[in-house]
Design brief:
mainly alpha, 11 helices, proteasome, 26S proteasome non-ATPase regulatory subunit 3, TPR_PSMD3_N
Length: about 230
């Protein structure tokens, strides 16, 4: 046996076959993986009392807000957050569930139509099958409240970005923002100041749109006073 034939016989069986497309990750799966990575960075930052990790995640919000969708946020809500404890949270969780279900149905309809037209469906992994079956215990809200606050911030931003396309008749975004602000202030962790600042920004923005900014001035002044303190 020559060296050439020996090398051919030792060809790796795991090499992809020619003409077979490698399944691409669904955008919702990519979003979940990215947000879990952000949560790990926040957890490390809080544990080490180093604010740079949290600040890095907040600087990436413009990319994150374009990346997340109803499917990814509904998954993160279900896997990470504590059970709902208010009517406001019940309302936005219901909105997320409905939008995630609708998005999944649209994907299934597209696959069926492509098969009927004789086209091969796009090589994408279905979210329900590809999403992780579990998340690290140190990232769930019961163990890591700061991570839950970040996910709630992302949900608030998503609701604001998609307000015109959602049925929010039973939900006021100012109340969603107020619950987030209250939750962060109860945590009272300086390592989460960047998340707290973003929450206050969107809370102020929503009241400014409604013309009720004056009503929350006392809260804003108290928050400013706390932000200049050197200790928790």
């Amino acid at each position: 046996m020559t060296a050439d034939t020996a090398s051919k016989s030792k060809k790796s069986p795991e090499a992809p076959e020619e003409g077979v497309a490698t399944p691409a990750k669904h955008p919702s799966v990519v979003a979940v993986e990215a947000e879990l990575s952000s949560l790990r960075l926040i957890a490390q930052s809080v544990a080490s009392k180093d604010y740079r990790g949290v600040n890095r995640v907040i600087r990436g919000l413009p990319q994150a807000r374009r990346r997340v969708d109803a499917v990814s946020l509904e998954y993160l809500t279900r896997m990470i957050l504590l059970p709902s404890a208010s009517k406001v949270e019940d309302a936005w969780r219901k909105v997320l569930e409905q939008e995630a279900k609708r998005a999944q149905q649209e994907v299934e309809m597209v696959d069926v139509e492509e098969k009927q037209d004789g086209k091969s469906p796009q090589a994408q992994v279905a979210p329900a099958e590809a999403l992780p079956s579990s998340v690290p215990s140190n990232l769930i809200e019961a163990e890591f409240p700061g991570g839950g606050a970040y996910i709630r911030l992302m949900i608030l931003i998503w609701l604001m970005d998609n307000e015109r396309n959602l049925d929010l008749s039973s939900l006021k975004l100012t109340e969603v923002a107020r619950e987030l602000v209250d939750r962060l202030q109860k945590l009272n962790q300086r390592s989460l100041d960047a998340i707290n600042a973003k929450g206050l920004f969107y809370y102020s923005l929503l009241h400014e749109r409604e013309g009720t900014l004056r009503s929350i001035r006392p809260l804003l002044y108290r928050s400013y006073r706390t932000s200049v303190l050197k200790q928790d």
